[in-house]
């Protein structure tokens, strides 16, 4: 059937303009209105086979025949022809519900036969019954190989009566607990002793053959197996829901997939993109196409090499599009071994929106056969599985024939390298890989040879061909070379390490540095081997061939940085010392700050990939911090700093964006002592690095100026040709004791120039009072919408163009922890060189570990400019000081009510969201709500998944408040009213882009904007306004299995909520609502709970105005149409 198609849509006729200009095979467009093909539940009535056939459109010269239909067959899934020309079909009535263990199964395999060869399949035989959603099928001499939940079976006919009488499990069980619509499909005989298959969607299988070799597959993968059950192997990893596979005339494998690309060129050992999963260290296999055929629901794939179609259709792929009800067509061209797909007009369109082409295969007669899962409903997750409109009986098989002049099909030039026992590694060096036929021979040879244990001669041959391969514009060949080289090194590294190391060093010609192609490929491949020994060899090569070389180019530096970063993912405790030495040797600056920054980058990468840091890296981080702090202490002692370092606070009320403002060097107008004006480059805090659509503020903690305040301001307030919007400004707030708050006393606007102008505020504005300086970016426009400030007269606010020691230290404290055993660090933290709040900011990561709620409340008080509350707190000077921690908590028991009563509704919502991830949050919410400090409405911002993770006691405490929120569950009337309100709105595309970027792009990708965490949005605009509005405002109504959230509660009480993208024995990789990736050590997990709900926020209507929603919908629809 189809893949997860949460956002699929009809294929616009306008896309045909992208087709091959010279192609003459163009079918008519459907008579059915195109929006119909965007509905997950089609509105058109059921048609008889004859009625459906009458609605097919094919190019002139083609005809469509009906081969079989209900009641002779039911819902066909996969097809295959045997050597006698008989058509074998797996069919189901159980789908989408698998038969439970112990209950009778009734799905089956039927065989259709054209005995008299007149083109009509007049004979139907039931070969096997009592199957459970059978999909993949491949006839063999005495029976058939098929998948039926949960195994791959060998079904035999031992007595020759045409009926299965012997069943044997070849491999299994495969996981089918997460999904029952992809599963194992598209079994193909590779004619090399292997049978190839697609693993399908979302399931996590762990399967072995008799030899004990075990294969683990998560969601989309391609695997192969021996017919006798002896061995199963992973062929390529990645993809989401591959459903359809075939070979081109050179023998290369290709698959159809949903949510990645409609067609993918497969490489043995290659890694393809999937939902949120990282590559294998060598990068993803390069894609062969960019277009998506207007849908993410692709199934079935056939190549015209097996056809009797016109010669003009040589080297074309045909694929089924179950959402748009079409057979898509692509022309394949080759650069060397690399295939490229060009979109062509479709082969077939249909007036019937129930037409669902799930499998395609060319028969021995050269005609195209199509399995039609004929159904009103196609979405496995978008529509409830028990929806009454799901058709469980209808199914058709169609044949597309060419009736015009029929030249003989082009000769099948499939290479036979995979079947050649005399093939040798040395043969690779004699091929001219600049020619496609030789490149294909090289590709096939390497994939065959590297599938076995690679001898030393193989490693040497691959290294000798590195220079030739590196010069090609053939990414598939280059990727294959890297994959084979990795396999060769891993094959020999343990058995013959001395010889391998010698060969690698001798072949890399390290004296040439990165001019050596062998060295370049080795420092790419060795980190991807992910073993201690290979990591050491990579360091050896970097030290001898790279680090010691002078005059490296910028390109060389980029290669080195990329290699060092990759090594961070694989370096272990055994190699960490050498790795750190390498980092130090690569440093050209004696400044410890530079090395510290490099450690920060390495640590952040390691944290993300592993979920924890190497102890030796932490030790190095502490040592570097100690060096920086010693220098700071010496500087402070000698200079006698007049004012402590102040902390800045970032606030973005709309989406809780706490990113610090960036630092940019810009020209500043300055006045010389003689009164002459000039310009000087100076660092400024700027909102520009956060994006011109960003809105938020950047403010100081309170300070008491020693005199007039001067600063420089640059930036804009809208297009120069338009009136000043006044949305961007800098203002001064002074303490007003009578109001118990800070009040604005002065405001200045940017000069509408990239060159900063001076602003001066005299002491009469504040008269010795405490003040706060705040710069606000309130303009969410796409251009001329930023502001920057700097060049402060107060030295405590000053900044530098290079990363300051304090900034780096704060990052290091956050990453590596505070080295409390260091006297220098302790002295620095306790010194007067830091303000009280700056000290808190440094200790914050550690305080967050021991007192998370108090830490977050302190942040929220500062962001709300409730500095009087912050001043009343006794912020601990050490996370180990139990007494001060208890006092801090007791103070917050009183001050939390004060803070909450000052906060706006948006502020309370922000507080609830932040605190909800911590243990005891529910108890605090109960207390504060009973005290009347926290609004019940704020609790409405919490997702259903949070409520589901509460203990019985916690749920009981909030039961009465939860009950009052029950009315928020049914959003049908909300959607109805929103649709009515939007009728009077005039959408603005720029506003729509901004809203999408701010609120959607963290998880969704549309065109080039965004990230692939949730479903891709190609075709989303074609679902219809009402459904699109429902998807945004009511995301929990129907949630794809792949996008349901998981709650992971840690032993320290922290709760992570998000999508699990990958899992190993040691780590759970999760993506949260903001698109942030989190690596969680499994050893620290206390509880894991799967929710039925979406990761998407359920209160989107509260985060945008009606105008913004209308503009977002308009943008999504228009963007989809353009694509």
Number of strands: 43
CATH topology of the domain at 13-26 and 59-402: Neuraminidase
Strand order of the largest sheet: 1-23-22-21-20
Q: Biggest β-sheet, characterized?
A: 5 strands, antiparallel
CATH architecture of the domain at 13-26 and 59-402: 6 Propeller
Output the number of helix runs. Answer: 29
| Gap from first CA to last CA | 25 Å
Structural class: alpha+beta
Spell out the CATH superfamily of the domain at 13-26 and 59-402: TolB, C-terminal domain
Instruction: Give the overall form.
Output: globular
Which residue ranges are poorly predicted, with pLDDT under 50 across at least 5 consecutive positions?
1-21
